[in-house]
């Protein structure tokens, strides 16, 4: 194992190191071996939306995806923190209608689109904000699909005692090979329970998505379909100009990445059979994106030609209101020896 101090992401403006961000990260293989560690990777974190690929496993394992005729683009939406662009919203509405449900069945609440152009269009048109616009509405539609297929109540599916959430808690513990019964509990931004887990366990869960050969036939098939769907439909996972969309396009099917709130980020790397998890302490996304881009390059999953589209994340330019480049966000020197 290569061990390092905490991740340090520096913000340079002109000739001055103006500020910096600190975080932790782990690269783990499917056998549980930690290959790279930055900082205390056994520290408990909330994995937030970075674990949506894991939360989509029951959708396929239960038979719900087959029963409702879901294609890979819809599987990607079940893993998404989408921007609420028109294509996202229309696809989820069609999925709900096909199941005999509507946006009224979603329990995630609403917010404006994460895509600035779309949000401006809504404001000009006076479009009401509903749960279908929530970046988690695809995940919630997947929860509803599983409940409906298994004959469980669709109402209250966000509650910790509902079978949907009980399944998800068990999957998280199983995939991370860790006891989560005594870890912290909270509520996620979309209302579902959020469960504390060690960052290294989160990375292991992602590694088992990358190499699911030891999970049994049903889970292996589900994991492979989820990763393939995310890589094939990256825009459905995120949206216009988002890190995950651009990273998966650059990876050309070699990887799946998933951001979460509070600067948590995960990557699934089937070519290498490893998973990556990271968390920036001050919840700054500009730092988590720079860190993830550099870790992907560090482990060799992106060749030089593929890193070119990611150059603005390898070293992120700082711009002012005149659109002049006035600085850069980059990894501290000596952050890794890859």
Describe this entry's structure for a reader.
This protein is α+β, with helices and mostly antiparallel strands and 338 residues long. The chain has a single domain, classed as 3-Layer(aba) Sandwich (Beta-lactamase). Helix content is 39%, strand content 20%. The protein is built from 15 helices and 13 strands. Strands 1, 2, 3, 4, 9, 10, 11, 12 and 13 form a 9-stranded mixed sheet that branches. Strand 6 (185-187) and strand 7 (193-195) form a beta hairpin. Helix 5 (86-98) runs parallel beside helix 7 (137-149). The longest helix is centred in the middle third of the chain and has 16 residues, at 217-232.
Brief overview, please?
This protein has helices at residues 52-55, 57-61, 64-67, 72-78, 86-98, 116-125, 137-149, 163-176, 199-210, 217-232, 234-237, 243-251, 285-298, 304-307, 311-314; strands spanning 2-4, 7-13, 16-29, 34-38, 44-45, 185-187, 193-195, 197-198, 256-260, 264-269, 274-280, 316-319, 325-331. It has 338 residues and is α+β, with helices and mostly antiparallel strands.
